Amino acid sequence: MRKNPAGPADSDSHSDSQTHSPKGEKGGSSHGHSHGFSAAGKHRWRLAVAFSITASFFVVELIVGLISGSLALLSDAGHMAADVVALGAALVATSIATRPDRSGRRTYGSYRAEVFASGLAVLLMLGVSVYIAIEAIARIGEKVEVGSGAMMLVGALGLLVNLIAIVLLSAGSKESLNLKGAYLEVMADTLGSVGVIVAGVLVQSTGQSWWDTVIALAIAVFVAVRAIILGRQVLAVLGQHAPEGIQPEAVVEQLRTVDGVEQVHDLHLWALTSGMNVATAHLVTSKDADPTQVLAGARQVMLDKFEIDHATLQVEPTGSGHCGEINW
């Protein structure tokens, strides 16, 4: 069975199955999957506009940060660079995920493009936070002139840009996890813009430039923490861990409640990409169980209880002896 990569997995509900008769003959039939355009694709223009304004302002903030000597501005510019990567990755992933597979070898399509793009964003965010932290520590004890007026002005403009991006992405974030990730990234950067404004106010009101360094360190720590959290999610997907929020033991227990199922083994759960969970399992049934009804019941359990609509289920009548122990 080959999955058609022409669209998203969540546009329809389906289950793939194999059945084995008592004589070991394979029953059932394979089928293709046809999907409509993704929710992220529908809102692609929102991503494009948000990407354009964010990328443009990143250049402005970086230049002003270098001229003014504000480490808080530079740290926020680094954070905004991560936004640019996240939004750009969402755009590229939307395009790649819907690209037809002409090789015939990408049986899962190219949906993991966004996972690799997220990994790149993690490396960028960690690099930015480490650089800012090193610069901030190097400034300790030094008297540095910081342009507080430029900080507040650019910080306010950055806040405006982020708010526009939030409005653009909010609708799509309710329908697509891809857009939701970009939306949360921009939301977090909004806090960075607020931090720049606060740093500018403190420097101007107290005359102490070290406030700029303190705020910069706070932003660097904030970015690093978010990068680590995102990095763990990326590694969990690439490591094919069970999707977050789904316990394998719970899946086994629920499948065993299906009429005719005596045993469940060789259960595998993983996420192809965010919001696209996949499962395979072998169901051992009583001899008088109807394989068709067992498959229908198991499919409904996977969909209703765990929101997994792509499950490959193999039915084995008890005593058939066609499935030995697998050593991996």
- Our estimate of the beta-strand percent is 5-15%
Within the largest sheet, what's the order of strands? Answer: 2-1-5-4-3
Which class of the largest domain in CATH terms? Mainly Alpha
Q: Tell me about the biggest sheet?
A: 5 strands, mixed
Instruction: Tell the overall outline.
Output: elongated
The CATH homologous superfamily name of the largest domain equals Cation efflux protein transmembrane domain
Element order: H for helix, E for strand: EEHHHHHHHHEEHE
Tally the helices: what do you get? 9
Quick check: average pLDDT? 77
Number of domains: 2
Q: What Rg is obtained from the alpha carbons, in whole angstroms?
A: 25 Å
Structural class by secondary-structure content: alpha/beta
CATH topology of the largest domain: Alpha-lytic protease prodomain-like
| Portion in helices | 55-70%
What is the annotated CATH architecture of the largest domain? Up-down Bundle
User: What is the number of beta strands?
Assistant: 5
Instruction: Report how far apart the termini are.
Output: 22 Å
**Low-confidence runs:** 1-38
